[in-house]
């Protein structure tokens, strides 16, 4: 993590104030190790996934597996959720529900808000059963939904990545691909393979002249777990055939390939299969550090292809700020998973479950009796209204963490550059920055001794993953602190939002630094005595955009302010005397 970022891989662009006319900028393409549009401007830098619209996943609806064998009703894959609703309200009502659901869950209002928040693209997961039946016939209603998404994105200046999330037969053998028998039969049944090739041929035919479509993401998270070793060769063969099929029809669109095991294993990428391609990886619940993405960076450098983080999220804002800040600093375009879910605070838009939803979810989990059909139907109709964006609960803190946009609270370990005393280890400029993070400390309490500054992890229950998706598990974890000695400094890349009008016409940005004792058990720090006896922890300098922030200590918190200057900037925190264990930074 302490290596300086190569000059050939500068960070992503600052957030754009407005979205350009994407259709007028020609096709998105590969330019060396970057993804650009036809004008050479960066593309696919920051996006969101539209999960559960065309391919419902049980956890996004609050469905949980039954607690004991034989109880409840399976409701994890699209097929299972569809069967549950048909069982509860009858096939005709269930079909009506799905039509209304797809007309409400994701609309032009969602696209307009995504653009307004500063994103530049959406990744659209597609279930093959929405656009193709088992005989291989194409379904007009399904393509109408894809076309609508593309049209909305054209109006609001966004690109679209078409993601085959559920291939015919299934490419993962899990609920996320809607496989009919819970096996990756795409790789064992020639008929499913032929259907997948035919589907990509049809997608290429339909969208070959559409520049709003940025890329073809051939298969989502193929072959996890034990399936990876069994069918890795088959995946490479399929990728080659899909590439040839698409290129015979469409010479222009960027093609994306995902690796094995939830798109985390890049071992199959030993050569370039297509000159206009990129490699996509996914990352969840792991330390948000450079070491974790080192295999992907190596592939980028070895093959000279762009890499793209196509899925990550389902976590607290601390992790989001560090992980997505890391991708931004490393020049890696990314896509957050996912835009909207039911009763789940990990998304920006959270659907408030209507009355009666607990009965349906409880029936699926085996904890409630079967709901009355008319009551269940009333609940499903209420859900159709609840999923509309204006009716959702807005979690702006999620987007603030992703974009480092004020008002925002960042964990101290989400720095973009650091310097230890006179030893400049990581560049302190936005053009040459990286993010540091940490794993639980070793016995010495000093993880990563070669880091420019020390990151300590203390307290918490043993064997807890501090980066877990479950908030309850994260709450049992310890505390990370950046241990700064005299001469150390850390930088944080920010985007300062336009100031909110205040009485008197003045506007200021306030910086609050939360500190605390983070010395591991058995280690006694020996800091240089503070020059100012009133400073309980140390004497600091804080600069925002090169301008000194005037402030003072109050207990274990430091607070200061400076006139607001909107736009991309850097917050620099340095220690002149003493020792500071920095835990959190809030910029308002």
UniProtKB/TrEMBL annotation:
GO terms for biological process: glucan catabolic process. One of its GO terms (molecular function) is beta-glucosidase activity. Its EC number is 3.2.1.4. InterPro entries: GH, Glyco_hydro_5, Glycosyl_hydrolase_5. Keywords: Glycosidase, Hydrolase. Belongs to the glycosyl hydrolase 5 (cellulase A) family. This is Endoglucanase C307. It comes from Occultella aeris. The lineage of its organism: Bacteria, Bacillati, Actinomycetota, Actinomycetes, Micrococcales.
């Amino acid at each position: 993590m302490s290596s300086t970022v190569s000059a050939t891989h500068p960070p992503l662009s600052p957030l754009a104030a407005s979205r350009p006319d994407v259709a007028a900028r020609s096709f998105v393409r590969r330019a060396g190790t970057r993804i650009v549009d036809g004008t050479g401007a960066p593309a696919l830098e920051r996006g969101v996934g539209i999960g559960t619209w065309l391919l419902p996943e049980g956890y996004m609806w609050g469905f949980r597996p039954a607690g004991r064998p034989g109880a409840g009703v399976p409701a994890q894959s699209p097929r299972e959720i569809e069967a549950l609703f048909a069982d509860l309200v009858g096939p005709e009502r269930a079909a009506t529900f799905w039509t209304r659901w797809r007309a409400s869950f994701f609309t032009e209002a969602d696209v307009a808000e995504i653009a307004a928040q500063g994103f530049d693209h959406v990744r659209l997961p597609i279930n093959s059963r929405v656009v193709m039946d088992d005989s291989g016939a194409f379904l007009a209603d399904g393509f109408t939904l894809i076309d609508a998404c593309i049209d909305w994105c054209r109006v609001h200046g966004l690109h679209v990545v078409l993601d085959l999330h559920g291939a015919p037969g299934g490419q993962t053998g899990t609920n996320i691909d809607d496989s009919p028998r819970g096996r990756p039969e795409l790789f064992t049944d020639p008929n499913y393979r032929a259907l997948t090739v035919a589907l990509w041929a049809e997608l290429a035919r339909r969208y070959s002249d559409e520049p709003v479509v940025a890329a073809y993401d051939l298969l989502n998270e193929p072959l996890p777990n034990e399936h990876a070793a069994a069918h890795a060769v088959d995946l490479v063969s399929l990728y080659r055939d899909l590439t040839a099929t698409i290129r015979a029809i469409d010479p222009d669109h960027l093609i994306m390939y995902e690796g094995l095991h939830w798109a985390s294993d890049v071992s199959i990428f030993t050569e370039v299969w297509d000159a206009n391609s990129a490699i996509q990886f996914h990352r969840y619940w792991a330390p948000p550090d450079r070491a974790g993405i080192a295999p992907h960076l190596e592939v980028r450098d070895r093959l000279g292809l762009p890499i793209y983080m196509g899925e990550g999220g389902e976590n607290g804002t601390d992790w989001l700020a560090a992980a997505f800040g890391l991708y931004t600093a490393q020049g890696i375009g990314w896509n957050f998973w996912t835009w909207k879910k039911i009763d789940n605070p990990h998304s920006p838009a959270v659907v408030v479950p209507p009355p009666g939803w607990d009965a349906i979810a409880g029936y699926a989990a085996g904890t409630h009796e079967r709901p009355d059909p008319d009551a269940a139907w009333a609940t499903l109709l209420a859900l159709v209204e609840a999923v509309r964006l204006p009716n959702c609960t807005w979690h702006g803190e999620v987007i603030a963490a992703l974009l480092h946009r004020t008002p925002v609270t960042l964990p101290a370990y989400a720095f973009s550059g650091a310097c230890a005393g006179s030893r400049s280890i990581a560049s302190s400029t936005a053009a040459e920055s990286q993010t540091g993070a940490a794993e639980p400390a070793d016995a010495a309490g000093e993880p990563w001794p070669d880091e420019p500054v020390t990151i300590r992890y203390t307290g918490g229950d043993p064997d807890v993953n501090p980066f877990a998706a479950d908030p309850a598990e994260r709450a049992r974890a310890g505390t990370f602190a950046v241990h700064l000695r005299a001469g150390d400094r850390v930088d944080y890349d920010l985007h300062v939002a336009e100031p909110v009008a205040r009485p008197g016409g003045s506007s200021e940005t306030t910086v609050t630094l939360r500190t605390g004792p983070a010395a591991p058990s058995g280690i006694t720090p020996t800091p240089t005595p503070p020059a100012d006896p009133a400073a309980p922890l140390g004497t600091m300098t804080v600069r925002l955009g090169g301008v000194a922030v005037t402030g003072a200590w109050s207990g274990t918190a430091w607070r200061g302010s400076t006139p607001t200057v909107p736009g991309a900037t850097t917050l620099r925190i340095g220690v002149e005397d003493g020792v500071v264990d920095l835990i959190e930074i809030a910029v308002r």
